[in-house]
Protein backbone atom coordinates (compact mmCIF):
# COMPACT_ATOMS: atom_id res chain seq x y z
CA UNK A 1 0.00 0.00 0.00
CA UNK A 2 1.46 3.41 -0.91
CA UNK A 3 2.56 5.55 2.02
CA UNK A 4 0.45 8.60 2.83
CA UNK A 5 3.26 10.17 4.86
CA UNK A 6 4.56 13.33 3.14
CA UNK A 7 8.08 12.93 1.79
CA UNK A 8 10.65 14.71 3.93
CA UNK A 9 13.40 14.91 1.32
CA UNK A 10 14.02 15.81 -2.31
CA UNK A 11 16.82 14.08 -4.20
CA UNK A 12 18.62 15.25 -7.30
CA UNK A 13 20.11 12.24 -9.08
CA UNK A 14 22.27 13.35 -11.97
CA UNK A 15 25.07 12.56 -14.36
CA UNK A 16 27.02 15.47 -15.86
CA UNK A 17 28.60 14.98 -19.32
CA UNK A 18 32.39 14.89 -19.49
CA UNK A 19 32.49 18.03 -21.64
CA UNK A 20 32.61 20.97 -21.24
CA UNK A 21 35.09 20.69 -18.38
CA UNK A 22 33.68 23.61 -16.40
CA UNK A 23 30.15 22.19 -16.19
CA UNK A 24 30.86 19.72 -13.37
CA UNK A 25 32.38 22.48 -11.23
CA UNK A 26 29.51 24.83 -12.06
CA UNK A 27 26.86 22.29 -11.04
CA UNK A 28 28.68 21.47 -7.81
CA UNK A 29 28.86 25.17 -6.92
CA UNK A 30 25.18 25.60 -7.69
CA UNK A 31 24.31 22.70 -5.40
CA UNK A 32 26.48 24.14 -2.64
CA UNK A 33 24.76 27.48 -3.09
CA UNK A 34 21.40 25.77 -2.63
CA UNK A 35 22.62 24.17 0.59
CA UNK A 36 22.38 20.62 -0.77
CA UNK A 37 24.68 17.87 0.52
CA UNK A 38 25.84 14.72 -1.24
CA UNK A 39 24.52 11.34 -0.15
CA UNK A 40 26.49 9.74 -2.99
CA UNK A 41 28.72 11.30 -5.63
CA UNK A 42 25.77 12.00 -7.93
CA UNK A 43 22.91 12.10 -5.41
CA UNK A 44 22.19 15.34 -3.54
CA UNK A 45 19.52 15.98 -0.93
CA UNK A 46 17.50 18.95 0.30
CA UNK A 47 14.50 19.21 2.63
CA UNK A 48 11.24 18.83 0.73
CA UNK A 49 9.63 22.23 0.27
CA UNK A 50 8.42 24.38 -2.58
CA UNK A 51 11.60 26.40 -2.93
CA UNK A 52 13.83 23.31 -3.00
CA UNK A 53 11.56 21.70 -5.59
CA UNK A 54 11.77 24.76 -7.85
CA UNK A 55 15.53 25.19 -7.50
CA UNK A 56 16.39 21.52 -8.01
CA UNK A 57 13.97 21.33 -10.94
CA UNK A 58 15.64 24.30 -12.58
CA UNK A 59 19.07 22.75 -12.08
CA UNK A 60 17.90 19.39 -13.45
CA UNK A 61 16.62 21.09 -16.59
CA UNK A 62 19.94 22.86 -17.01
CA UNK A 63 21.83 19.55 -16.76
CA UNK A 64 19.48 17.95 -19.29
CA UNK A 65 19.97 20.91 -21.60
CA UNK A 66 23.73 20.33 -21.51
CA UNK A 67 23.29 16.69 -22.57
CA UNK A 68 23.46 15.17 -19.09
CA UNK A 69 21.00 13.09 -17.13
CA UNK A 70 18.99 14.36 -14.16
CA UNK A 71 15.84 13.67 -12.21
CA UNK A 72 14.31 15.10 -9.05
CA UNK A 73 12.34 12.79 -6.80
CA UNK A 74 10.67 12.82 -3.39
CA UNK A 75 12.16 10.40 -0.87
CA UNK A 76 11.44 8.78 2.46
CA UNK A 77 14.37 7.12 4.21
CA UNK A 78 13.56 3.56 5.25
CA UNK A 79 16.84 1.69 5.83
CA UNK A 80 20.53 2.50 5.89
CA UNK A 81 20.24 6.20 6.66
CA UNK A 82 18.02 7.97 9.19
CA UNK A 83 16.43 11.39 8.83
CA UNK A 84 18.51 12.60 11.75
CA UNK A 85 21.71 11.59 9.96
CA UNK A 86 20.77 13.68 6.93
CA UNK A 87 19.95 16.61 9.20
CA UNK A 88 23.40 16.19 10.79
CA UNK A 89 24.99 16.31 7.32
CA UNK A 90 23.13 19.52 6.52
CA UNK A 91 24.10 21.07 9.88
CA UNK A 92 27.75 20.09 9.34
CA UNK A 93 27.75 21.75 5.92
CA UNK A 94 26.34 24.97 7.37
CA UNK A 95 28.76 24.82 10.32
CA UNK A 96 31.66 24.65 7.86
CA UNK A 97 30.33 27.79 6.17
CA UNK A 98 29.87 29.56 9.51
CA UNK A 99 33.40 28.57 10.55
CA UNK A 100 34.84 30.06 7.34
CA UNK A 101 32.86 33.26 7.91
CA UNK A 102 34.06 33.43 11.52
CA UNK A 103 37.68 32.91 10.47
CA UNK A 104 37.46 35.76 7.97
CA UNK A 105 35.73 37.98 10.55
CA UNK A 106 38.59 37.35 13.00
CA UNK A 107 41.09 38.35 10.32
CA UNK A 108 39.22 41.59 9.60
CA UNK A 109 38.96 42.37 13.33
CA UNK A 110 42.69 41.82 13.77
CA UNK A 111 43.37 44.14 10.85
CA UNK A 112 41.33 46.93 12.45
CA UNK A 113 42.99 46.38 15.82
CA UNK A 114 46.44 46.56 14.27
CA UNK A 115 48.75 49.58 14.25
CA UNK A 116 47.08 51.01 11.12
CA UNK A 117 43.55 50.10 12.13
CA UNK A 118 42.43 53.72 12.44
CA UNK A 119 43.53 54.60 8.93
CA UNK A 120 40.38 55.79 7.17
CA UNK A 121 41.10 54.11 3.84
CA UNK A 122 41.81 50.82 5.58
CA UNK A 123 38.63 51.07 7.63
CA UNK A 124 36.64 51.80 4.47
CA UNK A 125 38.16 48.79 2.70
CA UNK A 126 37.50 46.52 5.66
CA UNK A 127 33.97 47.90 5.83
CA UNK A 128 33.37 46.83 2.24
CA UNK A 129 34.78 43.38 3.01
CA UNK A 130 32.55 43.18 6.08
CA UNK A 131 29.47 43.97 3.97
CA UNK A 132 30.36 41.14 1.59
CA UNK A 133 30.89 38.84 4.57
CA UNK A 134 27.50 39.85 5.98
CA UNK A 135 25.91 38.92 2.64
CA UNK A 136 27.61 35.50 2.80
CA UNK A 137 26.35 35.05 6.34
CA UNK A 138 22.79 35.98 5.39
CA UNK A 139 22.90 33.48 2.51
CA UNK A 140 24.09 30.73 4.86
CA UNK A 141 21.36 31.58 7.36
CA UNK A 142 18.82 31.36 4.55
CA UNK A 143 19.76 27.74 3.85
CA UNK A 144 20.35 26.78 7.50
CA UNK A 145 17.07 24.96 8.09
CA UNK A 146 18.22 22.75 10.96
CA UNK A 147 19.89 25.16 13.39
CA UNK A 148 23.62 24.67 12.82
CA UNK A 149 25.57 25.22 16.00
CA UNK A 150 28.06 27.70 14.57
CA UNK A 151 25.56 30.38 13.63
CA UNK A 152 25.72 32.48 16.80
CA UNK A 153 29.50 32.38 17.06
CA UNK A 154 29.80 33.62 13.48
CA UNK A 155 27.13 36.26 14.11
CA UNK A 156 29.00 37.50 17.18
CA UNK A 157 32.30 37.79 15.31
CA UNK A 158 30.61 39.53 12.41
CA UNK A 159 28.95 42.01 14.78
CA UNK A 160 32.34 42.67 16.35
CA UNK A 161 33.79 43.59 12.95
CA UNK A 162 30.79 45.82 12.21
CA UNK A 163 31.31 47.61 15.51
CA UNK A 164 35.03 48.04 14.86
CA UNK A 165 34.31 49.47 11.41
CA UNK A 166 31.94 51.97 13.05
CA UNK A 167 34.58 52.91 15.62
CA UNK A 168 33.18 51.04 18.60
CA UNK A 169 36.59 50.82 20.30
CA UNK A 170 36.98 54.55 20.12
CA UNK A 171 33.76 54.85 22.15
CA UNK A 172 33.53 54.80 25.90
CA UNK A 173 36.70 56.83 26.43
CA UNK A 174 35.42 58.79 29.41
CA UNK A 175 37.33 58.21 32.59
CA UNK A 176 35.13 59.79 35.26
CA UNK A 177 33.09 57.56 37.54
CA UNK A 178 29.42 57.90 36.53
CA UNK A 179 26.65 58.13 39.09
CA UNK A 180 25.14 54.64 39.45
CA UNK A 181 21.73 54.79 37.74
CA UNK A 182 18.55 53.27 39.13
CA UNK A 183 15.96 51.68 36.87
CA UNK A 184 17.60 52.85 33.66
CA UNK A 185 16.97 51.27 30.28
CA UNK A 186 20.20 49.66 29.14
CA UNK A 187 20.40 49.13 25.39
CA UNK A 188 22.54 46.57 23.60
CA UNK A 189 22.67 44.54 20.41
CA UNK A 190 20.21 41.69 19.99
CA UNK A 191 21.51 38.14 19.91
CA UNK A 192 23.41 38.51 23.18
CA UNK A 193 26.47 36.37 23.75
CA UNK A 194 29.13 36.20 26.43
CA UNK A 195 30.20 39.85 26.89
CA UNK A 196 26.67 41.23 26.78
CA UNK A 197 25.28 38.47 29.02
CA UNK A 198 28.07 38.94 31.56
CA UNK A 199 27.75 42.73 31.39
CA UNK A 200 23.99 42.57 31.96
CA UNK A 201 24.56 40.34 35.00
CA UNK A 202 27.17 42.81 36.31
CA UNK A 203 24.81 45.76 35.76
CA UNK A 204 21.92 44.20 37.67
CA UNK A 205 24.14 42.73 40.38
CA UNK A 206 26.40 45.70 41.18
CA UNK A 207 25.37 48.84 39.29
CA UNK A 208 21.61 49.12 38.67
CA UNK A 209 19.50 46.47 40.46
CA UNK A 210 16.33 47.75 38.75
CA UNK A 211 17.87 47.81 35.27
CA UNK A 212 15.70 47.10 32.24
CA UNK A 213 17.24 45.83 29.03
CA UNK A 214 16.38 46.66 25.44
CA UNK A 215 17.73 44.74 22.45
CA UNK A 216 18.22 46.44 19.09
CA UNK A 217 19.99 46.06 15.78
CA UNK A 218 23.37 47.53 16.69
CA UNK A 219 24.07 48.92 13.25
CA UNK A 220 23.35 52.64 13.30
CA UNK A 221 21.31 52.67 16.53
CA UNK A 222 21.93 55.51 18.96
CA UNK A 223 20.50 55.36 22.49
CA UNK A 224 17.61 57.74 23.09
CA UNK A 225 17.37 60.16 25.98
CA UNK A 226 17.36 58.23 29.23
CA UNK A 227 18.87 55.11 27.67
CA UNK A 228 22.36 53.81 28.38
CA UNK A 229 24.07 51.82 25.66
CA UNK A 230 26.56 49.04 26.24
CA UNK A 231 28.59 46.76 23.96
CA UNK A 232 27.54 48.44 20.74
CA UNK A 233 28.79 51.18 18.45
CA UNK A 234 28.62 54.65 19.96
CA UNK A 235 27.61 53.32 23.38
CA UNK A 236 28.47 54.88 26.72
CA UNK A 237 30.07 51.62 27.84
CA UNK A 238 31.77 49.40 25.28
CA UNK A 239 35.14 48.03 24.17
CA UNK A 240 38.03 50.40 24.76
CA UNK A 241 41.79 50.03 24.35
CA UNK A 242 41.76 46.25 24.18
CA UNK A 243 39.27 45.76 27.01
CA UNK A 244 35.88 44.13 26.63
CA UNK A 245 32.69 45.82 27.81
CA UNK A 246 32.60 43.87 31.08
CA UNK A 247 36.09 45.15 31.94
CA UNK A 248 35.14 48.71 31.00
CA UNK A 249 32.09 48.59 33.30
CA UNK A 250 34.17 47.27 36.20
CA UNK A 251 36.70 50.05 35.69
CA UNK A 252 34.27 52.92 35.09
CA UNK A 253 32.12 52.13 38.14
CA UNK A 254 35.19 51.38 40.27
CA UNK A 255 33.99 47.93 41.32
CA UNK A 256 36.70 46.65 43.67
CA UNK A 257 35.29 43.21 44.47
CA UNK A 258 38.23 40.83 43.93
CA UNK A 259 35.93 38.03 42.76
CA UNK A 260 35.08 40.07 39.66
CA UNK A 261 38.64 40.02 38.35
CA UNK A 262 38.74 36.34 37.28
CA UNK A 263 35.28 36.72 35.72
CA UNK A 264 36.53 39.73 33.75
CA UNK A 265 39.48 37.67 32.55
CA UNK A 266 37.20 34.81 31.45
CA UNK A 267 34.91 37.18 29.55
CA UNK A 268 37.92 38.91 27.98
CA UNK A 269 39.38 35.62 26.73
CA UNK A 270 36.06 34.49 25.26
CA UNK A 271 35.03 37.80 23.72
CA UNK A 272 38.32 39.11 22.35
CA UNK A 273 39.95 35.71 21.72
CA UNK A 274 43.44 37.14 22.14
CA UNK A 275 44.64 34.50 24.62
CA UNK A 276 45.68 37.11 27.17
CA UNK A 277 44.68 35.31 30.37
CA UNK A 278 44.26 31.62 29.44
CA UNK A 279 41.63 31.11 32.12
CA UNK A 280 40.95 27.35 32.52
CA UNK A 281 37.27 28.04 33.23
CA UNK A 282 36.73 29.77 29.89
CA UNK A 283 36.01 26.63 27.85
CA UNK A 284 33.26 25.49 30.20
CA UNK A 285 31.63 28.91 30.31
CA UNK A 286 31.80 29.08 26.53
CA UNK A 287 29.98 25.75 26.14
CA UNK A 288 27.21 26.87 28.49
CA UNK A 289 26.68 30.18 26.69
CA UNK A 290 26.79 28.52 23.27
CA UNK A 291 24.25 26.01 24.59
CA UNK A 292 21.86 28.87 25.31
CA UNK A 293 22.32 30.12 21.76
CA UNK A 294 21.78 26.68 20.23
CA UNK A 295 18.53 26.33 22.19
CA UNK A 296 17.33 29.48 20.36
CA UNK A 297 16.35 31.18 23.60
CA UNK A 298 15.21 34.79 23.44
CA UNK A 299 17.55 37.50 24.68
CA UNK A 300 15.75 37.99 28.01
CA UNK A 301 15.90 34.25 28.68
CA UNK A 302 19.57 34.18 27.77
CA UNK A 303 20.22 36.97 30.28
CA UNK A 304 18.41 35.10 33.03
CA UNK A 305 19.99 31.71 32.38
CA UNK A 306 23.40 33.11 31.46
CA UNK A 307 23.27 35.40 34.48
CA UNK A 308 22.92 32.33 36.69
CA UNK A 309 26.18 31.01 35.22
CA UNK A 310 28.02 34.19 36.18
CA UNK A 311 26.36 34.36 39.59
CA UNK A 312 27.63 30.87 40.37
CA UNK A 313 31.08 31.77 39.10
CA UNK A 314 31.06 34.86 41.29
CA UNK A 315 30.13 32.86 44.39
CA UNK A 316 32.87 30.36 43.65
CA UNK A 317 35.56 33.02 43.26
CA UNK A 318 34.25 34.99 46.24
CA UNK A 319 34.63 32.00 48.54
CA UNK A 320 38.12 31.32 47.25
CA UNK A 321 39.19 34.87 48.05
CA UNK A 322 38.12 34.75 51.69
Describe this structure in words.
With 322 residues, this protein is an alpha/beta fold. It folds into three domains: 9-75, Alpha-Beta Plaits; 84-165, no CATH class; 185-320, no CATH class. It has helices at 22-34, 50-65, 83-113, 120-143, 151-165, 194-207, 245-252, 260-272, 282-294, 299-320; strands spanning 9-15, 37-40, 43-47, 69-75, 185-189, 212-216, 227-229. The protein has ten helices and seven strands. Strand 2 and strand 3 (43-47) form a beta hairpin. The mean pLDDT is 87. Helix 3 (83-113) runs antiparallel to helix 4 and helix 6 (194-207) packs across helix 10. It is 52% helix and 11% strand. The protein is elongated. A four-stranded antiparallel sheet has the order 2-3-1-4, with helices on both faces. Strands 6-5-7 form a three-stranded parallel sheet, with no helix packed on it. Residues 186-316 form the ChrB C-terminal domain. This is Chromate resistance protein. Residues 24-162 form the ChrB N-terminal domain. InterPro entries: ChrB_C, ChrB_N. Pfam families: ChrB_C, ChrB_N.
Number of strands: 7
Give the count of helical stretches.
Answer: 10
List segments where confidence is low: pLDDT < 50 over at least 5 consecutive residues.
none
Largest sheet report: 4 strands, antiparallel
- Percent helix range: 40-55%
User: How far apart, in Å, are the first and last alpha carbons?
Assistant: 73 Å
Overall pLDDT metric? 87
Q: Beta-strand percentage?
A: 5-15%
SSE pattern, N- to C-terminal: EHEEHEHHHEHEEHHHH
Q: List the domain count as a whole number.
A: 3
Shape: elongated
Task: Supply the helix-strand structural class.
Answer: alpha/beta
Rg from alpha-carbon coordinates = 24 Å
Spatial sequence of strands, sheet with the most strands: 2-3-1-4
Protein name: Chromate resistance protein
InterPro entries: ChrB_C, ChrB_N
Pfam family, one: ChrB_N
Domain ChrB C-terminal: 186-316
Amino acid sequence: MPSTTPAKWLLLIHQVPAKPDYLRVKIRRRLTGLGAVALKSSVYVLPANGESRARLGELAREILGQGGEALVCEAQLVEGLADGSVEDLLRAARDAEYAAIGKEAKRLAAELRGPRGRDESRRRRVGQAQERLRARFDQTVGRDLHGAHGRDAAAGLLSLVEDLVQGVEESGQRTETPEPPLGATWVTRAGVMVDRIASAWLIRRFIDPAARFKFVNGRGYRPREGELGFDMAGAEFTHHEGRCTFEVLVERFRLRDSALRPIAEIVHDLDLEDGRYHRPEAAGVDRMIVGLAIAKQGDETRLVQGGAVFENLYESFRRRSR
